[in-house]
Design brief:
- By secondary structure, this protein is an alpha/beta fold.
- Helices cover 35% and strands 26% of the residues.
- It folds into 2 domains: 242 residues, Carbamate kinase, CATH 3.40.1160; 145 residues, 2-Layer Sandwich (VC0802-like), CATH 3.30.2130.10.
- Strand 1, helix 1 and strand 2 form a beta-alpha-beta unit.
- The chain starts with a strand and ends in an 11-residue tail after the last helix.
- It binds adenosine-5'-diphosphate, aspartic acid (ASP) and magnesium ion.
- Adenosine-5'-diphosphate (ADP) binds next to loops.
């Protein structure tokens, strides 16, 4: 007998029929003799719809009230699922974050899980009851409702799996695993049988929304094997786990991309210590996260200083850059909100040179200009004009042989 946490995403719970179908998938695991705890997202686009309502009432909704509102979506799906499981003859009980006692910090709308109490869950499992837990929500030390940011049910799933010492956390979704890139963009994308935590962390943080970043961090920290599976429960999906030394990794495992990017450039910055700091300080004091940074070699005592920020923060970042430019005696501030980031990721890059060369070669051949670059041990990201995104992703996918069965690195 194994113990599984099964998490279903919103697209897999869009209608009552979807909920019935998911209940069948859960029942199958129980009939096979396994113990199951379930974690659910809200049905379909519920969270988006609730968010739109909040924005219609208040341009800047109060975060506490927003958590109260958004957490209601998951209450609906867990109650319906518990009913559906009962119809199939399996005792089930829906539970909200405060009933399980999923304890978090007090940062509304992006709270972090500090502890998952297991007493109630273990008691239900022991009694043969399937706990059906609302994802994405918890309570802080004052019993205030908190939520975990978009995609946060993934993190609830992994946190429960860690607390319950489950054999696996299964993430059931509308694709049958993690692909070499988003299969909606590149039809030739292939499902990966295995991905390391490190690679998944890069893919998730660089734009692949299949798993929330925090869920991958949690899984890596507590060594929870995570399997991304089709919501029919059929197939092997993708197992995310630690790198096994004897597994020969391909050089590039996957490509992630993000349209949520904008670039700001301050021209004519006097080449003096402290000027870069002056710009970045004002941006970070406004809680804007700077991603890529480029400073060119000085010519005649001046440099151009560029950085990228999330697109929704573009206007504010431009404003701050203009103010900083005046303070430090720089020239014009230029910018673009129609840029996108492409990242190639693979643990095999540690031991293989030449990935950047191939990437630049492919982009040059397609006439795509690279505006910024950043690298880590296992990834290379480039910022390009958004209109070339699809072309660039497809060309890189082919150039790195990701549409072919994997060839092991040597
Ligand atoms: P859920 O509703 O189950 O939480 P999400 O919409 O959050 O599902 O995530 C699944 C989606 O992630 C897929 O439909 C797919 O378009 C997208 N996606 C992006 N990158 C990848 C990738 N590398 N592999 C698989 N899916 C990806
Ligand atoms: N319902 C929340 C969202 O749409 C959480 C989740 O689906 O994981 O972001
Ligand atoms: Mg999701």
């Amino acid at each position: 007998m194994a113990r599984y946490v099964m998490k279903f995403g919103g697209s897999s719970l869009a209608t009552v029929e979807h909920i019935r179908a998911a209940a069948e998938v859960i029942a199958r695991q129980r009939r096979a003799g396994h113990e199951v705890a379930v974690v659910l997202s809200a049905m379909g686009d519920t969270t988006d719809e609730l968010l739109a309502k909040a924005m219609a009432v208040s341009g800047r909704p109060n975060p506490r009230e927003l958590d109260m509102l958004l957490s209601s979506g998951e209450q609906v799906s867990v109650a319906l699922m518990a009913m559906a499981l009962r119809e199939l003859g399996f005792p089930a009980r829906s539970l909200l974050g405060h009933q399980v006692r999923i304890l978090t910090d007090s940062v509304h709308c992006k709270a972090r899980i500090e502890k998952v109490e297991t007493e109630r869950l273990e008691a239900e499992l022991h009694a043969g009851v399937i706990p059906v837990v609302a994802g994405f929500q918890g309570i802080d030390s004052l019993d205030e409702v908190t939520t975990f940011g978009r995609g946060g049910s993934d993190t609830t799933g992994v946190a429960l799996a860690a607390a319950l010492k489950a054999d696996e956390c299964q993430i059931l979704t509308d694709v049958d695993g993690v692909y070499t890139t988003d299969p909606r963009m590149v039809p030739q994308a292939r499902r990966l049988a295995r991905v390391t935590f490190e690679e998944m962390l890069e893919l998730a943080s660089l734009g692949s929304r299949v798993l929330q970043i925090r869920s991958v961090q949690f899984a890596g920290k507590y060594n929870v094997p995570v399997r991304v599976l089709h919501n029919s429960g059929v197939g092997e999906g993708t197992l995310i786990s630690y790198e096994e030394p004897d597994v020969e990794a391909p050089v590039v495992s996957g490509i992630a991309f993000s349209r949520n990017e904008a670039q700001v450039t301050i021209t004519g910055v006097p080449d003096r210590p402290g000027n870069g700091y002056a710009v970045l300080r004002s941006v970070s004091e406004s809680h804007i996260v700077v991603d890529m940074i480029v400073m060119n070699a000085p010519r005649a005592g001046i440099v151009d200083f560029s950085f990228s920020v999330p697109r929704e923060e573009y206007d504010q970042a431009m404003e701050l850059a203009r103010t900083a430019a005046v303070e430090i005696g720089a020239g014009d501030v230029l910018g673009s909100a129609s840029v996108a980031k492409i990242s190639v990721v693979g643990v095999g890059m540690r031991s293989h040179a030449g990935v950047a060369t191939t990437m630049f070669e492919v982009l040059a051949r397609e006439g795509v200009n690279v505006r910024m670059v950043s690298t880590s041990e296992i990834k290379i990201s480039v910022l390009i004009e958004e209109k070339y995104l699809e072309l660039a992703v497809r060309s890189l996918h082919e150039a790195f042989g990701l549409d072919q069965a994997p060839v092991a690195a040597n």
